[in-house]
Amino acid sequence: MKTLPKLICAVVFVAAAVAADTKVQYQFQIVHAFGASGDGVGPGGEAAMDSKGDFYGVTTSGGEYGNGTVFELSPGANGQWTETILHSFPIFDPSDGWDPFGVVIDGAGNLYGTTVFGGNGQYCGYEPQGCGVIYELSPGGNGQWTETILYNFCSQPNCADGGEPTVDPTLTLGPDGSLYGVATNTAFRLTPRSNQWTYTVLYTFCNETGCNPTSGLTLDSKGNLYGEGGTGQCCGIVFQLQPSQNGQWNEVVLFNFSGSAIEGGNPIEGLTFHSGGLYGLAEDGGTNCQRVGGCGGVFELTKSSGNINDQILWSFGGENGAQGELPAGPVVFDKRGDIFGATYEGGEGCGVGCGVVYWMRQQKNGRWAYYILHSFNGSDGVEPVYGLLLDSKGNLFGATGGGGPNGYGVAYELSPTAQASK
After folding, report:
1. Distance CA 354, CA 370 (A)
2. Residue 387: inside a domain, yes or no?
3. CB neighbours of 71 closer than 8 A, spacing ≥ 6?
4. Torsions phi, psi of 263, nearest 5?
5. Distance from C-alpha of 265 to C-alpha of 237, rounded to nearest angstrom
6. Contacts (Cβ under 8 Å, ≥6 apart) of 316
7. Torsion over CA: 180, 182, 185, 190 (sign)
8. E strands along 107-195, which residues?
9. Three-class SS of residue 159?
10. For an engineered disulfide with 257, which of 235, 278, 305, 336 has Cβ 3.0 to 4.6 Å away?
11. What is the DSSP pairing of strand 48-49 with strand 55-62?
């Protein structure tokens, strides 16, 4: 475990409302710039936050061995944050993984994550060793963290258990402590039982409904799982996995995307439940973009009279992509029902745009107003990765995969002013 010096760079950004007649203000602050000596490089995958407001995540490379880290960012006095590296991943070590991708946290403060490579599983085709692992990092009383490998992917013949997990979210934590996820074309569950973990293949994709899941899994209160996939009848699907009494899981395609401008296509980045609806992001389609195939949009799936209806709530793009392009998800909701998210590209910086953070609020007429909260310019980050974390005070936290003072990504905070909360 390694603690690095504190770093803070603050910028105040006044965000102009898009398609709305109000102005909102958020304060943007870099809480950590990655890439210093011994630090991680390139944040990736989902992040997590504990009850104290500490921010946890991974970098896909860098650290002591150059193959990725798990880090903790802790807020201190006067708005300063301190980074602690909890674990650095080695390379070609069958007792560990490397190239981590996202973390989740349980109520006891244990972290769970996956790596794309490493472990003692079978050869995956082009990497020299291992197809990834599921690991746990547990905090100790002395401030040290202990890593435990819970499962090695490709441990079954012909890699029937999957390998190289690379879609977001890589893990979803269930109420009983089980971990759910997707590895290649396999949906899995890892269940804690009597001081050991049991790995179960729930479903194998690549059938008439499509291959190549494009997101991890979202769990509802009844134990059903939801995700997104490629192909289908045309341009991607949203699916449900239902458990049956005999232990088998059945796939139900809830919606087939047509790829049209008004319906969207290629759903990605994960799904979010809110007030009976299922919300997600389409990489293609939309009516607000000059790019061939569209710039994507925020979609809502609702059920009415037994039918699943799709509605694009907002289309990304705008003039020269100023309103953001290519969404990074999943979206998050606050208590009021406002939507927050980010895009990989677009905005007003970096020529074609380095990405934006946005806010959506539903109006009395049912339509959604869209606000740009921050437009990245390279010096403060490039390409926001995955989604956002929202704390109880309405502060937003996220990371970029590149840019910033060192050029290797940043962790950032966006704090609402009194004007923005009206």
Report:
1. 18
2. yes
3. 40, 56, 57, 58, 59, 83, 84, 85, 86
4. -115, -30
5. 8
6. 286, 288, 289, 295, 296, 297, 323, 324, 325, 326, 327, 343, 346
7. negative
8. 111-118, 133-139, 145-152, 172-173, 179-183, 186-193
9. helix
10. 235
11. antiparallel
The one-letter amino acid at 322: A
> In 3-state terms, what secondary structure has residue 16?
strand
Which range of residues forms the domain containing residue 27?
11-33+258-394
Task: For residues 298 and 30, give the distance between their C-alpha atoms in angstroms, rounded to a whole number.
Answer: 27
| Assigned domain for 267 exists | yes
| Polymer length in residues for the chain | 422
* CB within 8 Å of 33: residues ≥ 6 apart: 7, 9, 404, 405, 406, 408, 409, 410
Residue pLDDT, tens place only, 155-171: 999 899 999 998 888 99
Give a yes or no: residue 102 inside a domain. no
Distance CA 203, CA 206 (A): 10
pTM value is 0.91
What DSSP state is assigned to residue 346? B
Mode of pairing for the β-strands spanning 186-193 and 179-183: antiparallel
pLDDT tens per residue, range 265-281: 899 999 999 999 999 99
| Domains of the chain: total | 1
Backbone angles phi, psi at 131, to 5 degrees: -115, 20
Establish how many alpha carbons lie within 13 A of residue 27's alpha carbon, considering only the half-sphere containing its beta carbon: 12
Task: Give just the sign of the alpha carbon dihedral 245, 247, 252, 254.
Answer: positive
232 confidence band (pLDDT: 50, 70, 90):
low
Q: Domain for residue 270, yes or no?
A: yes
| CA–CA gap between residue 68 and residue 91 (Å, rounded) | 9
